[in-house]
């Protein structure tokens, strides 16, 4: 289990999983009032790629994540 703060684009896990990352959960925390979300496009044992989707100030989204793997 690992966790961190994601950015729009490529993200690298603090420690690569030896075999596979199999579940990532995120929680969006908009910096100020906006309705936002993110889409996970790809994930490997070393990291993932995410892109913002939303309205208003979606580029200001700060999202924390937790990922499980083995």
List the helices and strands and how they pair.
Layout: E1 2-6, E2 9-12, E3 21-30, E4 36-43, E5 47-54, E6 61-69
Antiparallel strand pairs: 1-6, 2-5, 3-6, 4-5
Overview of this structure, please?
By secondary structure, this protein is mainly beta. It has a single domain, classed as Sandwich (Immunoglobulin-like). Helix content is 0%, strand content 63%. It is built from no helices and six strands. It has strands spanning 2-6, 9-12, 21-30, 36-43, 47-54, 61-69. The strands form two sheets. It has a three-stranded antiparallel sheet, with no helix packed on it. The chain has a three-stranded antiparallel sheet with strand order 2-5-4, with no helix packed on it. It is globular, with a radius of gyration of 12 Å.
Residues in helices, as a percent range: under 10%
Structural class: mainly beta
- Our Rg estimate from Cα atoms comes to 12 Å
The shape is globular
Compact summary:
The chain is 0% helix and 63% strand.
Entry keywords:
70 residues, Immunoglobulin-like, three-stranded antiparallel beta sheet, 6 strands
């Amino acid at each position: 289990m690992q966790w961190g703060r994601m950015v729009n684009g490529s993200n690298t896990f603090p420690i690569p999983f030896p075999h596979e990352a199999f579940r990532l959960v995120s929680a969006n925390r908009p910096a100020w009032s906006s309705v936002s979300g993110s889409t996970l496009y790809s994930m490997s044992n070393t990291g993932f790629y995410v892109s913002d989707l939303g309205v208003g100030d979606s580029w200001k989204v700060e999202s924390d994540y937790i990922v499980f793997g083995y």
